[in-house]
Every structure is written in structure tokens, then in C-alpha cells.
Amino acid sequence: MNTKEYFKEQFEQSNVQDRNNLLDVVRRQAFDTFSKLGIPGAKHEEWKYTRISGLFNKEYSFGVNLTQDPLTQADIDAIRLPGHESANELIFINGRFSAQLSIVRSSQLIVLPLEEAARGEYRQLVEKHLGHSSKYQKDGINALNTAFVQAGIFICVEKGQVPDHPVFIYNVADAKAVNVLSQPRTLVCIGEAAQVQIVETFSTLGSQESFTNQVMEIIVEKDAFVEYYKIQNDKANAHQVSTTHIRQIGKSHTHAVTISLNGGMVRNNLNVVLEAAHCEAHLYGLYFQQGSGHIDNHTVVDNVEPNCLSFELYKGIMDDASTGVFNGKIFVQPQAQKTNAYQSNKNVLLSREASVNTKPQLEIFADDVKCSHGCTVGQLDEEGLFYLRSRGIPEKRAWSLLLQGFTMDILEKIKSPAIRTYVDGLIAERLEFRSHGQQEID
Amino acid sequence: MNSDLYLPAANDRNDEPGIIERTVLNEYKYGFVTDIEADEAPKGLDENIIRFISAKKNEPEWMLEWRLKAFRHWLKMEEPTWANVSYTPINYQDIIYYSAPKQKVNPANLDEIDPELRRTFEKLGISLDEQKRLSGVAVDAVVDSVSIGTTFKKQLAELGIIFCSMSEAIREHPELIKKHLGSVVPITDNFFAALNAAVFTDGSFCYIPKGVRSPMELSTYFRINAENTGQFERTLIVAEEGSYVSYLEGCTAPMRDENQLHAAVVELITMDNAEIKYSTVQNWYPGDKEGVGGIYNFVTKRGICKGVNSKISWTQVETGSSITWKYPSVILKGDNSVGEFYSVAVTNNYQQADTGTKMMHLGKNTKSRIVSKGISAGFSNNSYRGLVHVSKGATNARNFSQCDSLLLGDKCGAHTFPYIEVKNNTAMVEHEATTSKIGEDQIFYCNQRGIDNETAVALIINGFAKEVMNQLPMEFAVEAQKLLAISLEGSVG
Amino acid sequence: MLNIRNLHARIDGKNILKGINLEIKAGEVHAIMGPNGSGKSTLASVLAGRKEYEVTEGSVDFLGKDLLDLSPEARAGEGLFLAFQYPIEIPGLSTTNFIKTAVNEVRKYRGENALDAVGFLRLMKEKMAIMNIDQSLLSRSLNEGFSGGEKKRNEIFQMAMLQPRFAILDETDSGLDIDAIRIVANGVNKLRNKDNAVLVVTHYQRLLDYIVPDFVHVLYNGRIVKSGTKELALELEERGYDFIRSENHIGEEVK
């Protein structure tokens, strides 16, 4: 399909005209940007290893065109995360928030349609922060989401509040009948000294193609604490570009863990902008891909103010014909003296067909800093294997143990016991059923 | 951090200039101009200019055709913009593409070199007098577009080693040139390589026959002299089976307010069990303290380890040029071949450097090692950009990369862009990078032990760069160390 | 040898030293003790010439020269040595190369010829034996990856190599176990003679069991509030610094 033409048509139809409507203004601007940039191709440096433009050769239904049967409660039950009984559950269907299916259990949690927030008392917050991610995602795909913001949500935890339950966000794509494009949008504001735990997951129903282009922007104020987990374990027909953009505008703390276990072509953008002195950010990621899966993690830690600490560890296991991409940028701006920033990316290739492209990147404009990055690509330790086997552990089991060991320092960063047990189980199951018991060596 | 903090207590109390001021006063000592008449092409670039260059050099028809093909391709190409450098666009029609000092072309022996040029080289510390040379280094001296003479040719010829200017090689050894020229860096490779292929004027050619270890270092000294010219030289080194050569390259240019373009191509080829060690001390005019003038150094250097067990090692000390764009690379094609890249890049004032390497692992059991040390001072920006690529067939490939940056002052930037692409699961690739600064703590500690600021800086810088400096041939190492100290004099302290 | 008169110093506008008077003669060992924040390390830093500290009043005479007028390296050349509380790490610079440069720069300052490789090696071997220091340590980057004990031993080894007239040991015992303290102290004792002097800055009495001081001064709130012999150190250890506070009626000045 002619992507630009198609989206132009869609955009015209959605009648974004109201100059007094904040969202309309933002959307129109974003659409202009999209018209200029289009879907990023391989020539775009940030998309060198992840080529999504081919996915747009297909027709997708999205937004207003959607005419499927509504999902049933049983559909939703099938994709619920463990621990959901005591969680706030926010559900997007094909990119549109469904108030009907969602459950807000905590009184400390404010959830509003984005349109409503943009009109009411949160208008200033929305105006200030919605779309900030475009400063870091300078491409048409980010603009495309903003251009079609419809039925997005605004989440707010007010000053000093700590919701008594975590927030689970389900991004559901119903691809039972047609190819579907979903563009969920969320803006989260975490007030001073507030604290919240967010768990986000993606599920595709049906076997048609699904493309999710999701953007979540999180604002963290002074002394606030945000825990964010992204769990990706979708099907091979589920492709996504998932952007999580965290602005720490006061001295605050971020703890983010991204687990990517299955999917088609998956691209994650995680940006952490440290806009106040003495902020702290911890970024962890584990990707374990099989089949022809493609996982791309792009992270940015931008040190804007002095005395911030960031620590980042991403680990990857690439099996079968899967491809892993890691790009980690650390920026240290001129006034961000006394920055401490550490980054590490470790990869294991299990099969001859698997590949990894990794690009850790330091850009430093201040002098009094301590920064380091490192990355490795290799295999599991043969010596370790031998040691285990010499203690009577069968080879296949020994491999599993070694791989489990490799994933451990990421898994232990998941603070929610229910989620951790869940991810542990997914990985153990995968190791159990791996097609071959060992890595292939020529 | 205020750079004033770096000033020593002693300097606070009297009116002596601080080290920072002194650095600024420290002039580029190779910035003089030799007054010699030049034979020049008119400004601008079209097919006629290329025919002019080719005719000037009495080239055979095939060479002209090769150039024209490159030129036609270049016209279709766009100047790359991905490097982390910024400069006002180059007007390619405002450059003189051929300029040769007027002297007898290709003097039959070294005595015929114009005395003025001979003095120029004396001044640069390069003697073209074989008797006066320390034994062990043969020199090809290139001024602007042409080679003015090559020393020790005869002694080398006795061993079968060919060491001559590229122009001479095209005339005298056409089979070798036809076979190898452009085989590592094709004319279509990149914008500047295509430009070079179209208009290159001279450079050096080395051929080391089977089983021969060159008894001396071979070297080329490049000098830009004329105004408004670009220098486009081309170097080709072929090491046949079981041979070895160590090659050195040095370069300087006069101080001028306008920028001059230097777009060179270097190709290295090693056959089975052969080794080439290529060392560069790059000291083109870096521009003044305000960033005015200086050389744009846009260079394509690439070697191929064609044979098994062969080795190519690049060592570079980059202190000059206002802009450097340079990625000496190794294609590791032969099984068990080894590629190395050792680099110290220093930027001060408004210099910009985007440099690094590419290691392309194709053969089995291939190994590469990258040690890059970037030092930024003043308002400069220093980037490491490297690629380690392990292809599907490169079983048991190994790479280790270490990229360290040192920042002096708070107006400069250090950047690392390592690309790592691994398509074989038996590979082991490791990359480590650190960024740190020289601060008043380190300097004070040295002071307390009786070491003054400048000595302390020199000590620390040399310590930081030591792994790379150790790779340089002896006679270069001393010069290079001094150069480092001079380039950074007063940046800290 | 060293005569400190009414020394006032501050950092970042905060007054730390508020009138120090101290005279140290050749052959003597003085100890300065005091609670955290009393100005002990500031005194050491000011004497060595750390420029963050501003001297606002007073004078320091060292072997007939105005110490405060000298750059840090000139102070070292004159024979002042500071064993750092936190020795600095310098990646890439080998310890040997560093010490060799320091020894020869100091010799140059004193108008002596530089030591050649053989002479330097001989001196180093001799001092290594005294300090019980290993060759492998010296070939590593300066202080990089050294354990706390190794760093402190390296400080005293440098002291042995530079043969200062006056050495300040700034909390050289901090972070060391008792065995390491003994080794370091033995090294210092071997270097003592009638022509040099040592100022030991410490928080605890234990180091003074091994480096026995002739005089002990108590630094409190930027002033020397009590001086005595080594028994004073024992008293301090037993009674804590509170008795100084009550005896001197200066508690109100301290938070």
C-alpha cells in the first residue's frame, strides 16, 4: 500500500480540525511530521538493523475502520497476568482504551481518557509532556502514533500517593479476521513522593498480521519512584514498535525491566531523561528469541543535570535464526558533571543461524564523569559445562542450568514476586522444550 | 568545572601566563611555506582536468579510462553526512587538483632535487640525503601532487623490493598496478575514494616479493605546500607470500586561513604468511586556536589479509587536521589472519575527529584487536566509530576492542560509536570503553611528589596512550610522544 | 624546621583552620589527633599546597622559606612529603615511571644530577626491601586496582624513595588492619633520623603504638586545644574527645 497516501486518507477522515482542542493541534503537527518523514527505512541510522517499512506493504485496518465483533470476557481472561486479582487492569483493544473491560481497584490511581485530561484540570500537564518522546524518536513512526491519538489514556498518581495495587496494562490486538494496526497511547504522571508499579504486556489474538505502534510517556516528579516492567511474549505474527519515554523532572528513581521472549519483529525504545540532579535510573533487559524472531532494544539515558547515576544491563540469548539488536546510548550533557553511567550488553548465540548487532554508544560533553560501557558476544562457557557434567549432570540439563544462570541477574531485578515467578516459568519452559539441547559449534 | 581551577597555585600569585595561554601561543611549527614556483592546473574539476592530470603524468590510456570511470561515478554520489563532524560545504570547483613544484620531473638521482625543496625537508627533519639518514628508513617525499624523490631505491631493488612513486609504478609496473589498484578500495567505494580515484596525483607504491623481509622501514612523507590545492595521493602496498614490511607515513602542511582538502586512499594486500605494519603520524595543520583554517583529512585506508596466517597492523597517531574522517580497516579473508588497529587521536581547540576502524571477519579463526585512545581538549570533539563484523563463515573469530577517552576541560566532547555485527555463534567479541578525565586531583598528586604540571600532563597522557605508542617503530615513537605533549600543552594543569 | 604561626584557612568560604600554632624540630615526631571534621586533613592539605584551600591569615616557615609562597612541586622539592589519605589512581601510568620521574624532578630541583637507570634501580631495590614491596606492584598503573593496604604501602615506599626532610602521614592507618599498620609503621620508623621530622595525622591512638610521637596535639574546631606527650593520646583513646570539649568549654561552638 502507498503508506503516506493511505494514512493521509485516514487522517482526513478522522476530522482533526478544532484549533481549540489541544489534542487536535498536537495531532495535526505530528501528522505533518509523519508526512515529511514517512515510515523509517534502512537508511535511517536508528533503523539500520530493524526494517519495518516492509511490514507496511500490507493493508492494515485501524482506528475508525475497525468492524470486528467485540472481544468477550473469556478472550481477556486468557491473557491475564498472574496476580491480576489484586491489580489495576487497564485494557487497550486494537490501540483503543476499553473502559468497559478495565478495572481500577486503587483509589490512589486516577485514570482518564486522554481527551478528557487534555480538556480538564490536567490540561497543563498534557500540554507540557505529551509528545516529548518525539525529541528522542525523530522518525515517522513516533509521529504516526501521535497523529492518530484516539482513545488514549492519562494516568496520574498524585503527590504522596502510593497505589495499593500495581497497574497492569494489556495491549490486545484482535487479528482474528483482518490485519490490524494498533496505536495505544498513554501519558503517566507520577507526582512528588508518589510511587507506582506498572506492568505492561502485549497479546495478539488470531493469526492475521498485527502491528502495534505504542507510545507511553511517563513523568516522574521529585522523590517519586517508578517501577516499570515490559513483558513481551507474543506470537510470530505480532510486530511492534514500543516506546517508553521516562522523564525524571525531579530527583527521582526509575527501575525498568524489559523482558522480550517472543514475537515477530519487535522494536523497543526506552528513553530515560534525567532532568534533575541526583536522579537514579536502573535499566535491565533480557531477550531470548527463537525461530526467526527479531528483537531490537534501543535505549537512551540522557544525563541533563549533574550527579546522576545510571546503571544498565541488557542480556540476550539468540537461538535458531533469530536476530538481536542492541543500541544503547548514554548522553552526558555539558552541565551534567559528576555523572556516573554504566552500561553493559552481553549476548550468547546458540545457533549458527542466529545473529546479533550491538552498538553501545557514549556521547559525552562534560569532563568530570565516570562512564563505561562494554559488550560481549559469545558462547556459554565450555569449562562451566564440563564442570557441571563432571558432577553427573546430563549435557542438556547442564545447558539449561547455564542459560538459566545467564538470565538470573536480570530476573532477580523483577521485584514483583508474581511477575518474577511468571517470567521464570516462561524461561524454564522454553529451556525445557528447546529444539536442541546445546549450542551448535562448527 | 571552571578550567581556572586547573591553574596551579603558583600561577595564581604572579602574572606569568598560565599554561592554557601558553598553549595558545604555542605555534604549529611546520606551518611555513616554501617559496617555489609551481606548475598548476586551473581550479575546478571536469573531465578535462582529469585528462590534464593523466597527460601530465604520461599515463597509459587504461589509467585515464579508470580515472574517468571513477569521476563519472563520483558525479552521481553524495557527500557522506553520517560522521560526527560539521564543516562548511566544500566547493569542489574551487580546488586546484594538480600542483607540482617546478623542478625536473622525476630526477634520475636524488642530487637533482631542487635545493629549496631539499631544504624544506631538512626543516621538517627529513633528510633526503642517503648518507645523512639514519640507516633503516627509506623515504618517498611527496610535495603537493607529486613525488619529488625516493631514497634507497637501489639498495631495495637488489632484494626485489619495488619502492617508488605511484606515477612511476603506473609507467614501470603496469601489470602489478592493474592487478591491485582499486582491488581493496574500489573506485565506487565511497564519495572521497571515488574522488581520489579520479584525480589522484601521486603517492607511493611498495611491492615486497615472496619471502623477503624488508631490511629497512619504508616511509612516505607528505607535504602540502601550494595554496588552494587539494592533495589526493594514493598508496598501494603489496606483500607477497611470506614477506614483511614496516611502512611509515608522516604529513604536515603550512598554516593557512582557508581549509585545504586531503583525500587519500591507501590499500594494503597481504598474501599467505605475509605481514604489513603501517604506521602513521598525522600532523596536518590543525587550524588556529579559533578554528580557522586547517586540513580536511578525509581518508580511506583499507587492507586485505588475502592469504592464510597473514597480518595487517595499523598504528596511527592523529594530532593534526581540523577535521579527520578516517577508518583504517582490515578485511580478514584468509583463515587465521590477524588485523590490528592501534590509535591515539588528539583533538584540541576546535578540531574534530571521527576516526576508528572496521574489522571484517570472513575467514576462519581470524583475530582482531582494537585499541583506541581518544584525548579531547579545548572545544574539540573526538569520536571513535568502529565496526566489528563477523560473517557467517568466520568460525572462531575473536575480537577484543578497548576504546578509552580522556577529557581535558569541560568544553570538549568524547563519543564512541562501536558497531558490532555477529553472524556466527562461535565468535567471541568483546568491547570495552571508558571515559574519564584528568582532573586537579591527579595533577596535585603529581605536584606533591615534585612533578610540575606540564611534566605531569605529559606523563599521564603518555601513560594513557602507551599501549598504542609501544606499537610505533622506535624512531617514530619519540617524535610521536613529543607531538602528543605539544598538541596538548597547557590543556590541563 | 617547620614553624606554623596563627594559620587560618578556609574552603568554599567555610573557615576550617582558625589559628594553628605549631613548631616542629628536626628529629621529632608529632602527632595530631582530633575528631572528624576538626581540620586535621585540612592542615595536611594546606601544608602540601592543595589550591582549593585558601589561607586567609598566618604563615608557615619551612627550613627558612615561606612555604605558602611555593607551588606544590617546589614544596616537594624542598623536602615536604604528604602521604595521602586517599592516594590517587592514574590509569596507564606505571608506578615505576611515576616514581622515577618524581625522584629525578626533585633531584633537579635540588640541583642534583638525574639518576640513570642503573642508579635508580639500585635505589629502588634497596627501598623495596625496607618496605617489603613487590616488583609486580610497581609495574602496575599507579594505585589502580591496589588494595587499601597496597596503596598506603606505596605511599610510604614513595616517601622512602624521595627521602623528604618532613613527612606528613594523613590518616595513613585508616582502612588498614593491624598487620598492615605494623608494616607501614615499620617502614616509617626505618626512615626516621635526626635530620628529618614526621607529622602523623590520625584519628586513633593505635598507629602511635608503632610510630611513637614525641608530642601529641589535639586539634579541635580548627585550633590546637591541648598538647602533651604520648600519654595524651592514651588518655584520648580512653576518655574520648568529649573530655577535651568539657575541659576547654568550647562545646557550644560545636554542633
> What best-fitting shape of chain C do the alpha-carbon axes yield?
globular
- The coarse silhouette of chain A is globular
- State the domain count of chain C: 1
CATH class of chain C: Alpha Beta
Strand content of chain C: 25-35%
How large is the count of helical segments of chain C? 10
Beta fraction of the residues of chain A?
A: 35-45%
Radius of gyration of chain C: 18 Å
Label the structural class of chain A. Answer: alpha/beta
| Gyration radius of chain A, in Å | 21 Å
Q: If helices are DSSP runs of H or I spanning 4 or more residues, what is the number of helices of chain A?
A: 9
Runs of chain C in which pLDDT lies below 50 for 5 or more consecutive residues are 250-255
First and last CA, distance of chain C: 36 Å
Main sheet strand line-up of chain C: 6-9-10-3-11-12
Mean of residue pLDDT values of chain C? 87
| Low-confidence region ranges of chain A | none
CATH architectural type of chain C: 3-Layer(aba) Sandwich
How many extended strands of chain A?
21
Describe this structure in words.
In chain A, β2 (88-93) and β3 (96-97) form a beta hairpin. Chain A is globular and about 75 Å long. Chain A contains nine helices and 21 strands. In chain A, the strands form two sheets. In chain A, strands 1, 4, 5, 7, 8, 10, 12, 14, 16, 18 and 20 form an eleven-stranded mixed β-sheet that branches. A ten-stranded mixed β-sheet of chain A has the order 3-2-6-9-11-13-15-17-19-21, with helices on one face. Chain A has 442 residues and is an alpha/beta fold. Chain B has one domain. Chain B is 24% helix and 33% strand. In chain B, the strands form three sheets. A ten-stranded mixed β-sheet of chain B has the order 4-3-7-9-12-14-17-20-22-24. In chain B, β3 (137-143) and β4 form a beta hairpin. In chain B, α11 (453-469) packs across α12. Chain B is globular and about 65 Å long. Mean pLDDT of chain B is 83; it is low at 1-26. With 255 residues, chain C is of the alpha/beta class. Chain C has a single domain (2-248), classed as P-loop containing nucleotide triphosphate hydrolases (Rossmann fold), CATH 3.40.50.300. In chain C, 40% of the residues lie in helices and 28% in strands. Chain C has ten helices and twelve strands. Chain C has helices at residues 40-48, 72-78, 95-109, 117-131, 135-139, 148-162, 178-191, 206-210, 230-239, 242-248, and strands at 2-11, 14-24, 29-33, 53-62, 65-66, 80-83, 90-94, 141-142, 166-170, 197-202, 215-220, 223-228. A six-stranded mixed β-sheet of chain C has the order 6-9-10-3-11-12, with helices on both faces. Chain C has a four-stranded antiparallel β-sheet with strand order 2-1-4-5. The longest helix of chain C has 15 residues, at 95-109. The two termini of chain C are 36 Å apart. Residues 250-255 of chain C have low confidence and may be disordered. β20 (355-364) of chain A pairs antiparallel with β23 of chain B.
